[in-house]
UniProtKB/TrEMBL annotation:
SUPFAM superfamilies according to UniProt: FAD/NAD(P)-binding domain
Protein name: Cilia- and flagella-associated protein 61-like
Classification lineage: Eukaryota, Metazoa, Cnidaria, Anthozoa, Hexacorallia
Disordered: region residues: 266-339
Underlying gene: LOC116297972
Residues annotated as domain CFAP61 dimerisation: 997-1119
UniProt cross-references to InterPro entries, sorted A to Z: CFAP61, CFAP61_dimer, CFAP61_N, FAD/NAD-bd_sf
Domain Cilia- and flagella-associated protein 61 N-terminal, chain residue ranges per copy: 8-260
Family matches, as Pfam families: CFAP61_dimer, CFAP61_N
Length: 1205
């Protein structure tokens, strides 16, 4: 090396391609051929880039699981290599091929050595690296010294055009030498211990390690890793394990309770030694075993299936996540809490030892696995090695080979349990295409799984014809270890790739142009014995190689899905190895107007929504960071769902202990029902399709009970029935709900007025409630009320009273009307109305009031609830009385709906207040969501800011709940995400922490109002001030209105736009009897009017008479594209960038002019325009725009492509 250079190795990104191309020379092409660097990066199993301190690329290497020889089938390279060369030990598990390498000439040897060392450290099972090169080619000084020539197989007599060189692990990253510990190792090991943790020293003294080593006996052994006579790692193992406690706290069914099988079983057979994945235990009720999988095809009657799901969910107060289904033997009993805590009884003798203490120098931690063979050698009669660790300890390299055991529902043990089986030491794991002789072995692997019949049906179809009946290619592979089948995978060719590309953000992970259509596959079944879970990702990697695929897709359909026309799936055991893909927002197209310019049917075809999981070649050797912290979220509000969504969709993180506490269960688990949905307005944060696309039930545990108490000392949340939910971090986002008001108790027979009645001290009614008094706060409430109305109300003659002035009161009236309740049986009673109204628009207020009167709904305004049943609450509600400033009111009724005011739920308040969290009308938080407990965060309408901010009127309720939840999640990700080390969202000083944060996303409401009016409001987050007072402010901007709020079904309806003083859209309000293109119109918020085809100019010239039709024109469809905002950011970056080193950017020129004179003259504007036209930025922006339209042409075919004109 000609000079020293500080370098860092990292995974290659596609943005590195231009810099890598600069390193390519003529010698590179002779050695590796002419290649597409981006394609190499995209298809490599592992691509490594070396950068210097300035982040300049100085070397790059790409490693594949097959050689770069086109004539060799990538699925059969092992036979080819072993036929030609003497390398009997090389196989797909322990080998990779270096298919591309470039480096700066002066640093070639050092770069190659560093990359090779990095690769061996990153892939623990890797032992051999191969370099295949044309015979006679020069591999350069760097690779020449690292790779050695291989000996030919003595039986091979032919000639080869290629030469294969080999690099062994022991030459760069050798296995550690493990020996018994000696007392004199103490001095070598203590610095390592103290660097990582000084707790043991402070508890047991400076010589605790020497004492432990000296106290070794047949039950306690100590091992060290020795490098050149120096101890660099330490492990203490013990054969005394309390399996009974572990069985009480963890679901050890897949591991036979850590015991050997009883005599009488053929323990000599490996197949019997392996524990069945789903073992039925006598403590588990039969009905739990009969539970349908998420991918069952279900019954033909959709209604029956929905009822079954509702009944099942109601019967389960704890719903475990789907991704751990293969690691559970069944659910805890819910009917009897004592039986749920019973320990399953397993036969046999205990067969586990534990790791008591482990420590290793960071330089060698990637070789931690080398301890295990020596550890098992200490106890030859034990089959399982276990390790427990606190939840907040980060998962270290040793645990990547262990299998995490699922805790039981009632476990409060503050430890995670990991298990490693002795069979994992035998690196005998191969994958091959399925054959007829494998059928019995596959049956043995899947026989205890739900959906095993579907798996075997597909296997039989594959063996019979290799294709489905419709001709779709079908492929099946089995995993073997020591000649026994331990896993099976079944995939089909992916036929809906256009739909996936257009509806999911798959391009965040792959470049479609570098993947052939036939390289995409659809995973239907994947089963692997838990003992071999460490090989799960290798199994998937081999499936890709053997099937000649590069991408795998696995959908998860909602439980209510009918799955008509969808081929069967089963819950795969590799869910944790896949990445979750976000769904994309879709444009609502005017298909009839577009005609032949509309997108293809493959994109527009309606499909049942599903959550998509994905794996590609470059993800097969990229491990996820496991986070074991117990994060408990209380409340399934929009804030809580947004928080969980952000955590779940972190592709490089896997949160093992996310729990949601909500009495209603996860939203979106029942089939969408228009009759149910229209009882409540929508915040548009999450739709039914959004919930299906997320499938949160796959990744989080749900406790369907109410929080009753918080034990901050022991970090436990108590829920109904005194069940315990332990936490490490607690997130409170229960929001606010409509509460049943307390009647004033006034006797209307005395003709008393509201002002003369003393207000009740309590604001929330907590007495015995009649069964026909309701408050609707969720879709689950709506579903139960719809059922009650159909069963008990529709056939009667009584009236329904809707009490309140909130928007929910109007949507409930529309819901009653749509169910067939005559308007004459509906009475709307409004308390003294607030200012402003829920619509904050006089035109809409009048239109809805007129609609109610036209329909025949009885309306009373300004009345306060006085009594129910004349204070006799022994039976159902039959009448309600009200007072006002004039005459009192008495209404005979059979149903009463309360929508007076939203407040914090009483039980939530009591739990919060009793735990000494600061509650000042609402739960008090700082600007970073912290309560007065550092382990409890809170957000949403439940909270308010500390008084020191002097922002009493500003709370999270003023903002978009989805944005609040996302920001809360990002503020906590810093605690867990290693890629964010060094970043802190906390204010630097107290002076910097004096302002509340600003949130920018719009507040949105959508509702179906009485008279069939579709209502949409999108506005800037802010204080709820009357519209009239806002419009008189000089900086308000302009109001643009088309249509009338009082319209019939033939007219398009009322459409109001507020354009602020900066000429950007700030408010959108729509009221129409025709459906509104809600998804499209939301995209208008925040756009400058020039984006909208000179909106102001056209409106002033009377060229726009109907905003609905104007925004359905084809020119604006690109604005509604989900990537349009990204395109705007790219244009802004071009305007900010400097054309030359010393030249000013256009943005700087504008800022300079504005600083000199706030209002630009016509001459200044003309000079700016001329400067823009003459600059290279204009051409760059035009090219970027054409590129945007071309790349997204599958969504935007109505635009002319570059080169057509």
């Amino acid at each position: 090396m000609s000079g020293a250079e500080v370098i860092q190795a990292r995974r290659t990104e596609s943005l590195d391609a231009p810099e890598i191309l600069k390193l390519v020379s003529g010698g590179t092409e002779k050695l590796f051929g002419r290649v597409n660097v981006v394609n190499i990066i995209e298809k490599a199993n592992l691509a490594v880039t070396l950068v210097n301190a300035k982040n300049d690329v100085i070397a790059f290497a790409a490693f594949f699981d097959y050689p770069n020889i086109p004539s060799i089938n990538q699925a059969k390279w092992e036979e080819w290599l072993k036929e030609k060369y003497d390398c009997t030990k090389a196989n797909a598990l322990n080998s990779l091929f270096l298919n591309f390498f470039v480096a700066k000439p002066d640093f070639a040897l050092g770069c190659a050595s560093e990359i090779i060392r990095t690769v061996f450290n990153a892939v623990p099972f890797l032992h051999y690296l191969f370099l295949v090169m044309p015979r006679g080619a020069d591999c350069g000084p760097g690779l020449f010294e690292i790779f050695n020539s291989m000996r030919y197989n003595p039986d091979f007599k032919g000639n080869l055009n290629f030469e294969v060189k080999i690099c062994h692990r022991h030459e760069h990253c050798p296995k550690l030498h493990i020996r018994h510990a000696r007392v004199e190792d103490h001095d070598d090991l203590m610095p390592t211990f103290n660097r990582q943790n000084d707790v043991l020293t402070s508890m047991y003294g400076n010589f605790f390690l020497a004492e432990m080593i000296e106290a070794q006996d047949e039950d306690n052994r100590c091992l060290v890793a020795d490098v050149d006579g120096t101890a660099v790692g330490f492990m203490s193992v013990c054969s005394q394990v309390d399996c009974q406690i572990l069985n009480r706290c963890f679901d050890l069914g897949p591991f036979n309770g850590l015991k050997k099988l009883v005599d009488g079983d053929d323990t000599g057979s490996m197949n019997e030694e392996m524990v069945k994945e789903e073992k039925v235990v006598k403590d588990i009720p039969e009905q739990k075993e009969e539970r349908k999988s998420s991918t069952d095809s279900g019954k033909s009657s959709k209604e029956t299936k929905d009822d079954e799901i509702l009944e099942e969910e109601e019967s389960q107060s704890f719903v475990p996540k789907l991704s751990d289904e293969h690691m559970r033997q069944g659910y805890d009993s819910e009917s009897d809490s004592d039986s749920a805590r019973k320990t399953s009884v397993y036969q046999g003798i205990e067969s586990a030892f534990c790791i008591q203490l482990f420590c290793i120098d960071e330089k060698y931690e990637m070789r931690s696995l080398d301890f295990l063979p020596a550890a098992f050698a200490q106890f030859p009669d034990r089959d399982y090695c276990i390790l427990t660790m606190p939840h907040l300890v980060s998962e270290f390299p040793l645990l990547q080979s262990f299998t995490r055991v699922t805790p039981k529902r009632h476990s409060t043990l503050s430890q995670e349990l990991y298990v490693y089986h002795r069979w994992g030491l035998i690196e005998s794991f191969s994958v091959k295409p399925c054959t007829t002789s494998d059928t019995d072995g596959i049956k043995n692997v899947v026989k205890s799984l739900k959906g095993s019949n579907r798996i075997m049906t597909d296997i039989e179809q594959y063996i019979a014809s290799r294709r489905d009946h419709d001709g779709t290619q079908l492929q099946a592979f089995v995993a073997e270890s020591m000649g026994q089948i331990v896993g099976v995978a079944i995939l089909r060719r992916e036929e809906d790739i256009e739909y996936i590309r257009s509806h999911y953000s798959i391009e965040d992970f792959v470049y479609f142009n570098h993947h052939q259509r036939e390289e995409h596959a659809h995973l239907h079944h994947f089963v692997l014995n838990p003992i071999f879970q460490q090989y799960s990702k290798h199994f998937l990697k081999e499936v890709l190689r053997l099937s000649h695929k590069s991408c795998l897709y696995y959908p998860i359909f909602p439980r209510y899905s009918t799955l008509e026309g969808i081929k069967p799936h089963s819950t795969v055991t590799a869910l944790n190895d896949l990445v979750t893909i976000k769904a994309r927002r879709q444009i609502i197209y005017p298909v009839e107007q577009l005609g032949g310019n509309a997108p293809s049917d493959r994109i527009l075809q309606p499909k049942e929504p599903f959550a998509l999981n994905h794996l590609n070649r470059k993800l097969t050797l990229e491990p996820k960071v496991a986070i074991n912290a117990r994060i408990v979220v209380v409340g399934a509000s929009d804030v809580g769902i947004s928080f969980l969504e952000t955590f779940v969709f972190c592709p490089h993180l896997r949160f093992n202990n996310l729990t949601l506490i909500t009495p209603q269960g996860l939203p979106g688990q029942s089939a969408p029902d228009p009759q149910v949905n229209q009882f409540l307005p929508s915040s548009l944060c999450f739709t039914d399709d959004d919930h299906a696309h997320m499938s949160l039930r796959t990744w989080i545990n749900v406790v369907k009970e109410k929080m009753t108490r918080i034990d901050r000392t022991n970090k436990i949340v108590y829920v109904t029935n005194d069940h315990k939910v332990p936490y490490d971090y607690l997130v409170l986002c229960t929001g606010q709900q409509f509460q049943i008001p307390v009647p004033s108790g006034a006797d209307i027979s005395t003709l008393v007025t509201t002002s003369e009645v003393e207000r009740p001290r309590d604001t929330v009614y907590r007495g015995t409630l009649p069964g026909n008094v309701f408050a609707i706060n969720s879709l689950q409430d709506s579903a139960h009320i719809v059922k009650w109305l159909k069963d008990q109300f529709l056939a009667s003659d009584g009236k329904a009273v809707v009490y309140g002035w909130a928007m929910e009161a109007y949507t409930t009236i529309q819901g009653l009307l749509s169910l067939g309740v005559p308007a004459s049986r509906i009475v709307m009673v409004q308390p003294p109305p607030p200012i402003p109204s829920c619509f904050n628009n006089l035109d809409i207020d009048e239109a809805i009031e007129n609609s109610l009167k036209t329909l025949g709904v009885e309306i009373h305004i300004g009345f306060t609830l006085a009594q129910w049943n004349d204070s006799n609450l022994d039976g159902p509600l039959t009448c309600a009385t009200f007072t006002s400033d004039n005459k009192p009111l008495r209404v005979e009724c059979q149903a009463f709906f309360c929508f007076q005011e939203k407040r914090v739920d009483y039980q939530a308040f009591k739990a919060i207040n009793d735990s000494c969290l600061v509650f000042d009308g609402k739960l008090v938080v700082n600007a970073n969501f912290h309560t007065n407990d550092p382990f409890i965060r809170a957000a949403g309408p439940l909270t308010k800011y500390q008084r020191r901010y002097h922002a009493e009127s500003w709370t999270h309720a003023n903002y978009n709940s989805k944005e609040i939840g996302s920001e809360l999640a990002h503020s906590m990700l810093v605690l867990f995400d290693p890629t964010l080390e060094g970043f802190s969202p906390e204010p630097v000083s107290m002076e910097d922490d004096q302002l509340v944060p600003i949130y920018k996303q719009a507040k949105m409401y959508s509702a179906l109002l009485p008279g069939g009016y579709h209502y949409l409001h999108v506005g800037k987050p802010g204080l709820n001030l009357p519209l009239d007072s806002l419009m008189v402010q000089p900086e308000y901007g302009r109001e643009l209105v088309t249509g009338s709020a009082k319209h019939d079904e033939s007219s398009p309806g009322y459409f109001r736009l507020h354009v602020n003083q900066y000429r950007s859209i700030e408010t959108i309000t729509c009221l129409s009897k025709q459906p509104i293109d809600t998804s499209n119109l939301l995209c208008l918020y925040g756009l400058h009017e020039r984006y909208l085809n000179n909106l102001l100019q056209r409106f002033d010239e009377d060229l726009i008479t109907n905003f609905y039709s104007f925004f359905r024109e084809s020119w604006c469809l690109a604005i509604f594209h989900d990537r349009f905002n990204d395109f705007r950011e790219e244009v802004r970056e071009l305007l900010v960038s400097k054309p030359e080193q010393d030249a000013h950017s256009l943005e700087e020129k504008v800022r300079k002019m504005i600083d000199e004179d706030l209002v630009l003259t016509k001459e200044q504007r003309r000079n700016l325009r001329d400067a823009y036209i003459a600059s290279p930025v204009r051409k760059a922006i035009e090219l970027r725009q054409l590129s945007f339209l071309s790349y997204n042409s599958y969504h935007l075919p109505m635009y002319v492509k570059q080169g057509v004109v």
